[in-house]
Amino acid sequence: MLISACLLGQNVRYDGNNLGLDSLSFQRLSELVEFVAICPEVSGGLPTPRTPAEIIQGVGLDVIEQRIQVITQTGEDVTDAFILGAQNALDLCKRNNIRAAVLTDSSPSCGSSKIYNGEFDGKKVAGHGVTTALLRQHGIAVFSQFELENIIEFVNS
Ligand code: SF4
């Protein structure tokens, strides 16, 4: 199973921190699957720490289909790095025969149910990130870290 590297405790978030999981559900899932970790943004060439970026007026699929961009808070266009990171995540899934992923919600790369609204005001809207869009386009099931029980059901089905 693919996993966002920050959920495995790797300090790859934009602020240099992580969101490491240690719940009982996560421990149960860890016994059922082998995790393969990636941070799409780092994989796409961005540094840690890095300036926060958001998808401007759309969702990850719009970025993949080159309709809109991912822009940092200081106005830099990082669309290419986000798309490269998504492609690297997909390649990793193909090489390891991975059919499901648990990715960090709200991220412009990894979000699966919510993302920030593109105005850097801290507000979230329904949507998904760039990596999630590409994985789903290729039939890979993407869950958030808030759906661990659903993932365990998926793995056991
Ligand atoms: S891109 Fe994904 S893996 Fe990397 S820090 Fe953001 S949420 Fe975590």
Secondary-structure map with pairings?
Layout (H helix, E strand, L loop, with lengths): L1 E3 L19 H9 L3 E3 L1 H4 L9 E3 L4 H5 L5 E3 L6 H17 L4 E4 L10 E3 L7 E3 L3 H8 L3 E4 L3 H9 L1
Parallel strand pairs: 1-2, 1-5, 5-8
Antiparallel strand pairs: 3-4, 6-7
InterPro entries: 2-thiour_desulf (IPR007553)
Protein name: DUF523 domain-containing protein
Describe this structure in words.
Helices cover 33% and strands 17% of the residues. With 157 residues, it is of the alpha/beta class. The chain has one domain (2-156). The strands form 3 sheets. The chain has a 4-stranded parallel beta sheet, sandwiched between helices. A two-stranded antiparallel sheet has the order 3-4. It has a two-stranded antiparallel sheet with strand order 6-7. Helix 1 links the parallel strand 1 and strand 2 (36-38). It is globular. The protein starts with a strand and ends with a helix. It binds iron/sulfur cluster. Iron/sulfur cluster (SF4) binds next to helix 2. It comes from Enterovibrio norvegicus. This is DUF523 domain-containing protein. InterPro entries: 2-thiour_desulf.
Succession of helices and strands? EHEHEHEHEEEHEH
Q: Averaged pLDDT, please? A: 98
How many helices? The count is 6
Strand content: 15-25%
Q: How many distinct folded domains?
A: 1
The geometry reads as globular
Number of strands: 8
Radius of gyration: 15 Å
Rounded to the nearest angstrom, the distance between the terminal CA atoms is 15 Å
Spatially, the strands of the biggest sheet line up as 2-1-5-8
Low-confidence parts: none
Structural class: alpha/beta
Largest sheet: 4 strands, parallel
The distinct ligands, each listed once, are: iron/sulfur cluster
